[in-house]
Amino acid sequence: MVQMELFRSQEMNLVQLIIPSESAHDTVTYLAQLGLLQFKDLNPDKSPFQRTYANQVKRCGEMARKLRYFKDQTAKAGLTPAARPAMDGDVDLDELEVKLSELESELIEILANTEKLKRTHSELTELHLVLKKAGAFFSSARDNATEAQRRELEGLSGSNEDIDRPLLLEQEMQTEPSKQVRLGYVSGVVPKSKALPFERILFRATRGNMFLKQAPIEEPVIDPASGEKVEKIVFVVFFAGERARLKVTKICEAFGANRYPFPEEGSRQSALQLQVASRLDELQQTLDAGTHHRDNVLTTIGYNLEQWTLLVRREKAVYHTLNMLSIDVTRKCLVAEGWCPVSAKDQIQDALQRAAFDANSQVPTIFQFLHTKEAPPTYFKTNKFTGAFQEIVDAYGVARYQEANPGVFTIVTFPFLFAVMFGDWGHGIILLLASFFLLWNEKKFMSQKLGDIMDMAFGGRYVILLMSIFSIYTGFIYNEFFSVPFRIFGESAYTCRDHPDTHWDQCESATSVGLIKLGDQPYPFGLDPAWHGSRSELPFTNSLKMKMSILLGVTQMNVGIMLSYFNAKFYSNSLNIWYEFVPQILFLGSLFGYLSILIIVKWCTGSQADLYHVMIYMFLSPLDDLGDNQLFWGQGYLQVALLIIAFVAVPWMLLPKPLILKKQHEQKLAGRSYGVLGESDAESVDGDDEHEEFEFGEVFVHQMIHTIEFVLGAVSNTASYLRLWALSLAHAELSAVFYERVLMLSFGYDNILIRFIGIVVFAIATLGVLLVMETLSAFLHALRLHWVEFQNKFYMGDGYKFHPFAFATLSEEDD
After folding, report:
1. What pLDDT sits at residue 170?
2. Rg of the chain's alpha carbons, rounded to an integer?
3. Cα–Cα–Cα angle for 535, 538, 539, rounded to 5 degrees
4. Class of domain 1-42+325-377+803-814
């Protein structure tokens, strides 16, 4: 018999490993490569710094930091070096640590020297610009002064009445040279954004006794302090006196202005410009050589970076796991405990033998099973197809060890219930194309880091695939392609009432007096296209989808109750079978199972019975005559019998189980009081520890809550399935509105621009509302129906996942 691996979690065993110290590292490494053993922490009271391999973990963490530093520097340099194709298994961790330290020191030195050279280069560039711009100031001033002197001399030799003659010229010429005030100046560059407040502060600090000349630099220059490109201007400030010089210097420092020397003599200016240009060329050559050397170092590192990172990450994980092991008092072996699947016993033993052989250990690792009452972890062997559906179940709660797994049914029921709400084969085809796109680029996307939304969509690519396939199927049943019906499976079974020879889609009275049926043969598959746009379309589809929702809901809830029987039988819990499963299946069947039968009988017989009236008066007046609402003989007697069964089922769920548990507890206590005389005290103490406390009040209250929840939930959950009808109706009506009021309305005009706008608006509305919002809405409602209405009938969901130590699950966060 083939075992269903997904129906119940795999059988687990608690195992103990006694590992010799010399082979401990290799053993844990081989087990991590296998990925089928979940280690238990045997040192929970010790902090991470008190554990045996704390220093090794710290070393690996430091190496991981260096590797992250190398990765950041490679990204900053814009390099994408080729990675080593295969991992070198002979790399020693100690050698790698020394090599990484050397490479880090070399790279830090290269970057520091490069930073100094860049700073010097930026300063020389600014000095070169100051010499150029300020030289233009002084050259222009000399030319103006020479021209003014020439005119003065011409004026003096001419007429004394020249109006351009300076009034204080004679006084200036008679002033002694020692008493003449010599002007000083400061030159440099200042950020353009600070130029205006810089000028204002200079004017106020010197009380206007200064002269400022500015010239903007055409292109942004690299600031020596920040290393970023900044728009700056060259300035020269003229002032008189030592106090003014000190004020100007402090203001320059406050505004981050870089001051540079500027000689007065033109010859010295030219010489300094040549010297600066020469030094800039030399620095640029040195920078290019340094950058080339840095790129070579980073390329060499990048070639091995991925493999080194993987090695360090694995070594750190191995030592972290070794810290979870307890050391024997002789310090010659380590003791490990963990959970593993029973089916993995041979694989684990093989890995232990290989580790002992490779480590040249004289003593093999001892592998033995332990008996415990601790609940094992839950492990389902999934693949990339079933994994997404299992994640949907696990988001509600991880299954208890070996309880029935709803994930098996979710693979079919989840996309089907989604499709019931989303049924349109046109929209389904678009979803199918989207899923094909994700599947076609599967390998590409798996190696990339996607965004949150894209990562979620890619993870559920197989869920989207099944949702689209089922949506196409239900779309054929509803006969809707973007709300347009098609005669795919044959001609309609209806014709025009007034003119039987006229085709149904050309009948003008279809929306008023309706159509008539031709013969007894219905439309071969799905909804007859003649219903679309007719007077009876909405009442008919509402009735159909509402009754279909009830049938689907009652069926799924009965499946959930049946799974509770399989759980109780698997755990050998006869109380749950007789006092939970039996009354629950009777209660649900006598009410909503009966309603489902009435719906099917009404469909088969074509009766006009009012099922609302039947169900309401089944409770209010069970003995009254049904009249026209009677569907079959003996219906009234059957309803009375079902009503009695429903009322009996409630106390059947509530009372017997707590009372029987109380009686069993009392019998257990009575049996324990007459123990065997030869029983030791230690055994007696062990028995006391194994005994569980029993509180009748708590058990009774818990059972009462469970009973009330089921009785009320049977009504509310059945009503909750009507969301299938509501969302299906909303989807169909929205699709019809977009088609008729947007697309067809625009095509009613002869203007091609209006038609184009109509197509665009229709496409955007279909994509944004129907294919995004409606998809998300139907997905969430299907999720609710599975979590609440289906799983609460049998699913405990209080287990914990099996997390084996495996290299395959390590990520960057583990660094």
Report:
1. 47
2. 44
3. 90
4. alpha beta
